[in-house]
Amino acid sequence: MLEIRKIAAGISLVLEWKKTGKDYVASLTGGDEHVGAVGVGFYDHESKRASSSVVTTPGHRETEIALNGAKAFSKACKATSVFIVGIHLDNITLNEINEIIAASEEMISELAVIIEK
C-alpha cells in the first residue's frame, strides 16, 4: 500500500491506498484506529462527474471526511473507490477536531494529485 502521513492534534494520521482491480481502496486512520465511516465513490465517465455515499457506525463523527474523501478519490482515479475513515483521540477539543479535519483535507488533496498523474 502507498501512504501519506501527517501529524495533527498530536497524533499520526495515515492515509493508505491501493488499486483493487479497476477500482481503489483507501483508509485514513489516526489515534485509536477503527472503522468509523465508510464512503463509496462513483465516477460517471459519460458526465465526467463523481458522487459518493457514506455509512457511519453509531456514535462516530467521521461522516464528512469519508463522504468527501470517497468523492475526491473517485474523481481523481476516475473509478469506483472505497474510503474508510477511523480517527480517535480521547477528550478531543474543538481546536483538535479542526486541526484533524484540515490535515485530512490536505491529505485527500495530496492523494488526488498523486492519483491523477
TrEMBL record:
Pfam families: PAC_bac (PF21758). Residues 10-112 form the Prenylated flavin chaperone LpdD-like domain. InterPro entries: LpdD_chaperone-like. It comes from the Archaea. This is Prenylated flavin chaperone LpdD-like domain-containing protein.
